[in-house]
Amino acid sequence: MFDTTLRDGEQSPGASMTLEEKLEVADILDALGVDVIEAGFPIASQGDFESVSEVAKRVKTGSVAGLARASEKDIDRCAEALRDAKRPRIHTFISTSPLHMKYKLQMEPERVLEMVASSVSRARNHVEDVEWSAEDGTRTEFEFLCRAVEIAIRAGATTINIPDTVGYTTPAEYESLLTRLREAVPNADKAIFSVHCHNDLGLAVANSLAGVRAGARQIECTINGIGERAGNAALEEIVMAMRTRPDALPFHTGIETKLLTRASKLVSAVTSFPVQYNKAIVGRNAFAHESGIHQDGMLKNAFTYEIMTPESVGVAKTALVMGKHSGRHAFREKLKELGYELGDNALEDAFKRFKDLADRKKIVYDDDLIALVDDEIVNA
Ligand code: KIV
Ligand code: ZN
Description:
Blueprint: E1 2-3, H1 5-9, H2 19-32, E2 36-40, H3 46-58, E3 63-69, H4 72-81, E4 88-95, H5 98-105, H6 109-126, E5 129-135, H7 142-154, E6 159-164, H8 171-184, E7 192-197, H9 204-213, E8 218-221, H10 235-244, H11 260-271, E9 288-289, H12 292-300, E10 319-320, H13 328-337, H14 344-360, H15 366-379
Parallel strand pairs: 1-2, 1-8, 2-3, 3-4, 4-5, 5-6, 6-7, 7-8, 9-10
Helix pairs in contact: 2-3, 2-11, 3-4, 4-6, 6-7, 8-9, 14-15
Bound molecules: 3-methyl-2-oxobutanoic acid (KIV) and zinc ion.
């Protein structure tokens, strides 16, 4: 697992973090067991340089990566920032799609290939662990992508990343691209293939998993899926998909899943990016049930409506939220939890009054219930 919350995640408009906040995030990523932490883009600013060097000094377990364009200055600055890392990685990239080469780089394709070779070799002179990315890889001509990947591996790249930079691909197409690429590039077995998917069509996690099915063994993602535009693939979703469905996705990540909720809350707090209520795994409603039918099922057997336990992702317990869809069974259990055991008539009365209240209020809080039952007892 390659986490880029501190680099691509921070590129979300408005998500910038201070050095102290980045160190807190780096600590939790390390505790989660992330294999590679991409700490920033050292050439981008003095602040980015400092945060990459501080993260590099601090991380105990994972590798620390810095991003660099295919230029000598970028690569040398990145190497300097990573000087104190136990396991430094330089991640260098250049665009390979016709659109990016023509308009963004304004470079001939042959010149781009030369730069792939020179940038990777330069990075290899600094560190042993070099990742090369074909920016806009999924909109790149296949033959050209094969040539670029072959050159990068020959120049010493140990990881080859094929980003879906603009979130354009689909699972079947991405799976096929990675499969064909690994078959067509003669030295493909000398590198680990990696996926890096953006979420413009809401397919980032599905595409990443499809890439893994095609043999990719590194997944680039972020906590809460933050990142450029619609974001990157969400780490917590990928990890829990593999953990929950080992039959369909027989892969293992080594992530300490009990820390996922804590990591999500921390990233949300330091970036001031709220997590949507219905976000998979870490959203406030991911383990909450309001409807009577679901609450009744949950009280009989939690697996009726939950495919993973809340404890497995660090949530204390399932929440039975009291609202207008809730039924008697959940109402009685909720009162029991609050310390009230009512007789059948009082319970029926209180339930009716609760339903009236729930029609007026979106959520009925514990305090509302306490007030309602106390009133019931006083008036009995
Ligand atoms: O989306 C992208 O292409 C990137 C690269 C720099 C890896 O973030
Ligand atoms: Zn990206």
